[in-house]
Design brief:
alpha+beta; two-stranded antiparallel sheet; 4 helices
Length: 104
């Protein structure tokens, strides 16, 4: 069984970052971790990432083609836990008409 290169999957996708303005929320981050996120990328309620429509403002590139996170090293926990092929990934990819990532 071939191992999935998770970074490659995500860098050619970005669907989870454009799925919903309610998705990139803060949950278990400490005040110190939140302070590392540029204030201009935090929503007005201070509850998550600022979005343009459903798309996270930190997302760069074209969904389904080539993307990157502008704050990858300090991204929220919800972003860290979404993995290629999991339920959240599958739901987001379907929104954009992208094929499901098959995992073992």
């Amino acid at each position: 069984m071939e191992e999935i290169d998770q970074s490659r999957c995500c860098q050619s996708c970005g669907a989870c970052c454009g799925y919903s303005q309610n998705w990139p929320r803060f949950s278990i981050e400490s005040d110190e971790q939140l302070a590392l996120i540029p204030p201009g990328l935090v929503n007005a309620r201070q509850s998550g990432m600022r979005c343009e429509g459903d798309r996270c403002s930190a997302l760069q590139g074209d969904i389904g083609k080539a993307t990157t996170c502008g704050i990858y090293a300090v991204r929220p926990e919800v972003c860290r836990t979404c993995m290629p092929g999991d339920a959240e990934c599958t739901m987001a990819r379907r929104k954009f008409g992208l094929p499901v990532i098959e995992t073992a």
